[in-house]
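Closing statement on the zinc ion sub-project.
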Amino acid sequence: MSQATKLIALDGATISMKERHLMMGGSDRVIDIPIPSFLIEHPKGLVLFDTGCAPEVATDPEGYWGPATKFLRNIRYTPDQVVDRQIKLHGYRPEDVKFVVVSHLHLDHSGGMKLFPQAQLITFKGELPYAYWPDRKARNGFILADLLPTRGFDWRELTEDADLFGDGSVNIIKTAGHTPGECSLKVRLKRGNVILTGDTIHIRPQLETLAAMDSDYDIGEASASIRRLRDMQDSGEAALWISHDPDDWKRYEHVME
Ligand SMILES: [Zn+2]
């Protein structure tokens, strides 16, 4: 049975957010959330899941993100945590990344896309138009300067779940709702399956309540997507790695085989 040979969690920025901005019914407690990306090594090529914040954010967050910094406070991000530097630190070449799968195009996931002009970029249909021209309430979540440099890139827009290499080892799962094209990535490793949830789930307590986020594009769909991932976890199909959950960042090994 084919599998990916390695899953590597790449360090990124940390920001502070109130729990109630991460899930409906949450408290005023401030949580420090990690913003990782993930590199998957497969015999047929490297896959990057999410790309973190733009390099510019490491030096001038207010200048680059503008009004979004009102909600995303206390950004801690060094040039060494930018995704291309992280890939090099782990001994790979950024130009060898063949596929970049973005969970969605919010500013903390799409900032590094412009660093991979040679790769195929993969998202779900509906995400790109929404990111370029979002609803007014969602506008601060997308940064045009993250998107514009990628207009000429090789974009592939999916409409349903996809098996990236055709061997069952890396599957892109449609988990829309947070945004129109939100997706997750299921990676089969020697040790078992891991699902990288992107922002389908923000923090682990959402698995209990299925509570979406106030600012989700479609709250009902977002909640159904959380349930879909919870069912996959409960049936033993895969472990869930919730990108922004600080406990998951501590729970899992950062290099897995
Ligand atoms: Zn996010």
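The radius of gyration is 17 Å. With this model delivered, the sub-project is considered complete and its resources will be redirected to Aim 3.
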